[in-house]
Amino acid sequence: MTASDPMSDCPGLSIVVPAFNEGGSLGRLHDELLAALGPLDLTWELIFVDDGSTDNTWREIQALNRADPRVRGIRLSRNFGHQGALLAGMSHARGEAVVSMDADLQHPPNVVPQLVAKWRHGSRIVKTVRRDPAHLPFFKRKFSSIFYRVFAYLSGVDLRAGMADFRLLDRRVLDQLLGFKEGGLFLRGMVEWVGYPSAIIEFDCGTRFSGSTKYDLSRMLRLAWHGISSFSLVPLRIAISIGLAASGIAFLGVVYAIASKWLEGHAVAGWTSTVAIMSFLFGVLFLFLAVLAEYVGRILEEVRARPRFIVSEQVGEHASATSSGFVVDARRAAHRDA
């Protein structure tokens, strides 16, 4: 870039951190990022996204911005979820590379220089795979493993167990992702889908610095379903196959009952079992209708085309790139009036 280029002051690296009631962790995260990024010959910015927090998260972000102008803050009008907050931060990022990570320090800041090193060696996407600690609950570990296997089988998109939203994206990859208009966000799958040369770094999961996890069972299940339904029609096809098989069995049962009545002159015994089987089949039918209704509901969400996030307040340099989920190129928007 030349000196006259209006984007010449864009940082080399943007770090996007969604935060929901994480006020107790942000100062520590900032300090550890300072230590990790200090040796790098790279300008950077740190973007915190307050995803509708009810604690002191936004006040902490404002204080960090006053102390360090490289810290920027984006406050969403309400809680839009982890994926929406991530998208909000990435749409405001101006760096040539963008790292996304969690605010609770379970994504270690000292791994960021390794991501940058892989990027400088030509990887457009640098993914991380978590090595789970021994104390991680058995249910959470098994749920993660099963989900990624099922997701890979149903969608054809290869996701490894332990992959999360701790990664580095090159600007070219990020611009492609920001061009996607779908409302059901599952960024992990979208990153795999776009392709590009990639690398993987394994890391040991850090210890949560403060607060409690925001991903309970219901949130995990909701994210899992969003991921599968966003990338695969296989659940619908499975429903069709089982429905056809059940219909075939029911038809054969009707033929058998009629044949027994006409040929042997007696009624078919076992009406209790017949009613039980019919009740089971109706239960299966309603289950598949629920799957179909969920897909129809997803279609309705896409047709509405509502913004995927709404920004209510910002602090930091070039804080007016976009205020809604209708994403624009943040670097050009930030310099539109330059």
What does this structure look like?
This protein has 338 residues and is α/β, with parallel strands linked by helices. The chain has two domains: 249 residues, Spore Coat Polysaccharide Biosynthesis Protein SpsA, Chain A (Alpha-Beta Complex); 71 residues. It is 48% helix and 15% strand. The chain has eleven helices and eight strands. It has an eight-stranded mixed β-sheet, sandwiched between helices. Strand 2, helix 2 and strand 3 form a beta-alpha-beta unit. Helix 9 packs antiparallel against helix 10. The longest helix is centred in the last third of the chain and has 34 residues. The chain is elongated, with a radius of gyration of 25 Å. It starts with 12 loop residues before the first strand and ends with a helix. The N terminus and C terminus are likely disordered.
Number of DSSP helices? Answer: 11
Instruction: List the secondary-structure elements in sequence, H or E.
Output: EHEHEHEHEHEHHEHHHEH
The helix-and-strand class reads: alpha/beta
Percentage beta strand: 15-25%
**Which residue ranges are poorly predicted, with pLDDT under 50 across at least 5 consecutive positions?**
1-7, 332-338
Average pLDDT works out at: 75
Number of strands: 8
Alpha-carbon distance between the two ends: 16 Å
Please outline the major beta sheet: 8 strands, mixed
Shape, principal axes of CA atoms:
elongated
- Provide the helix percentage: 40-55%
CATH H-level homologous superfamily name of the largest domain: Spore Coat Polysaccharide Biosynthesis Protein SpsA, Chain A
Strand order across the largest sheet: 7-5-6-4-1-2-3-8
Radius of gyration: 25 Å
* CATH fold field value of the largest domain: Spore Coat Polysaccharide Biosynthesis Protein SpsA, Chain A
The CATH class of the largest domain: Alpha Beta
Number of domains: 2
Based on the coordinates given, report the CATH architecture of the largest domain.
Alpha-Beta Complex
